[in-house]
Amino acid sequence: MKLISNRREFLRKTSIAGMGMLMFPDMLRKVAASDRLRVAHIGLGGMGNAHMKWFAAIPEVEIVALCDVDQLHLDSTMKTLDTLRPGHKAQAYKDFRHILDRKDIDAISCATPDHWHSQVATLAFKAGKDVYCEKPLSHDVRGGQEMLKNLNRYDRVFQLGTQIHAGDNYHRVVELVRSGILGKVHTVRLWKSGFPPDFGPAAYQPAPKNLDWDMWLGPAPISEYDPQRCHFNWRYFSDYGGGVFGDFWSHIADVAFWALQPKGLKSINARGEQNTGISNVQRWIDVDYEYQDLNIFWTSQAPNVPGAASRGNIGAYFEGEKGTLICDYNTHEVRIGGELMLDLTKVPITVERSPGHQQNFVNAVKSRTQPESNLEYARKLTLPMHLGLISYKVGRKLEWSENREKFKGDREANSLLSIEKRKEWDLT
User: Fold this and answer.
1) pTM listed for this prediction
2) Concatenated DSSP letters for 73-112?
3) Is 194 in contact with 1 (CB distance < 8 Å)?
4) How far apart are CA 216 and CA 68, in angstroms?
């Protein structure tokens, strides 16, 4: 099964407010204008439209601006907003910097390709705006560091778009793991199967008039336009994304990092195979992470453990001294002594449930607190993904200094912690 169809199915399901958890009973209630949060949406592809629909379903949100470098995306999303919010007064922009110049906008959502995340968010913080941003957090380690520094400096609010984090299943898994029912957890196995597409040879051609290709590239290296490099498929080119691994790491690793809060990363050891055709990300990648008292293994196929084969193409498996827990986005199973546990009601509810991922962000902005998938947490979650990709690129095991956030004795690997930006598009 090709990943491209898996992700489209993911987008189809999430667009029906499933992942956003926005089916509120008071959805139609009226909200005073003074209590509204004025939001602009930057990046209007598949996830950008999902963002817009989720926020449009929240009564106290007013969508005041839409932005995309592709006029066709902009026009299409504006029509959708016309249907969802008749009479709205949202304005259209092709350059997100004009949105940041507006003093009347409270927050932005960012669903651009990965290579734009850190600059859009950092500039928004500097402009006094809060940010809801798609995952992964950034395209390199330095980008995440800059985002956190500026969030703190300008006292802003940030939510990472790990929508599954808001679901009851992840909350319950965290409760079960933290309850001690598994004993001390010593190993976590994470997996996501599926390969990136094979696009074949390049098909370079003039960029369509509706697309500002130079701005789409932005900080990425200059490249001729190829429709296969652009919309949706960009994640399969290392200048813009991290392949299947970069795309899905944050979603499934989230439950493990939330439950265990791993500390003391010591080493990263990745291996894999390059994709075919013009796509230059990894076709598959397996990564071993050694933490203090914990091992995390990422694999591109389901591990040979009970329940993995029946869970589809993504999951997490916790191994403790007393038992195991396996989960995916929506379900989980616990085994103690090899026996499936059917009654876990004795483990109390200890983690406060989410009002919905986007509603949690709105509430946090209003109360000036940090939401569930806040930036400090999101950076800790995203960092191992970047380090795994670097280990794959250099082709060797790497030792890590957690305090210094540097590889030990490896100049080449350290040079990859930051991706050089095109000078004219280095905006921060």
Assistant:
1) 0.92
2) HHHHHHHHHHHHSTT---EEESSHHHHHT-TT--EEEE-S
3) yes
4) 9
User: Phi and psi at residue 252, in whole multiples of 5°?
Assistant: -95, -30
Position 332, amino acid: H
Question: What would the DSSP string read from start to end of 282-302?
Answer: EEEEEEEEEETTEEEEEESS-
Q: Please give the single-letter amino acid code of residue 394.
A: V
| 316: its two tokens | 């997490």
Note the CATH architecture for domain 168-198+234-352+378-415: 2-Layer Sandwich (3.30)
Report the topology of domain 8-164+371-375: Rossmann fold (3.40.50)
- Cβ neighbours for 311, distance < 8 A, ≥ 6 positions apart: 302, 326, 328, 331
Instruction: Give the bridge partners for 158, in sequence order.
Output: 131
Distance separating alpha carbons of residues 32 and 195, to the nearest angstrom = 49
How many angstroms from the chain centroid is the CA of residue 98? Answer: 25
Alpha-carbon distance 425 to 207, whole Å? Answer: 19
Encode burial over 358-387: b for 16+ CB neighbours within 10 A, e otherwise.
Answer: bbbbbbbbeeeebbbbbbebbbbbbbbbbb
- Is the predicted pLDDT of residue 383 greater than 60, yes or no? yes
pLDDT tens profile 21-69: 433 334 444 555 568 999 999 999 999 999 999 999 999 999 999 999 9
Q: What is the mean pLDDT of residues 227-254?
A: 97
* Run of H or E including 67: strand 61-67
Q: Taking 50 as the threshold, does the pLDDT of residue 16 lie above it? A: no
Spatial contact of 371 and 355, defined as CB atoms under 8 Å apart: no
- Residue 62: DSSP 8-state: E
Angle, to 10 degrees, between the axis of helix 168-179 and the axis of helix 243-260?
A: 50
Are the beta carbons of 290 and 297 closer than 8 angstroms?
Answer: no
Is there a contact between 308 and 317 (Cβ–Cβ < 8 Å)? yes
pLDDT for residue 112: 98
End-to-end Cα, the chain, rounded Å: 40
**C-alpha–C-alpha distance, residues 398 and 123, integer Å:** 33
Domain boundaries, the chain: 8-164+371-375, 168-198+234-352+378-415
CA distances from 425 to 24, 98, 220, 328 (A): 41, 15, 8, 39
Distance CA(189)–CA(253), nearest Å, equals 9
Q: Where are the alpha helices (DSSP H) in 19-159?
A: 46-56, 71-84, 96-100, 114-126, 141-154
Instruction: Give the type of residue at 355.
Output: P
Per the CB < 8 A criterion, the answer to whether 182 and 321 are in contact is yes
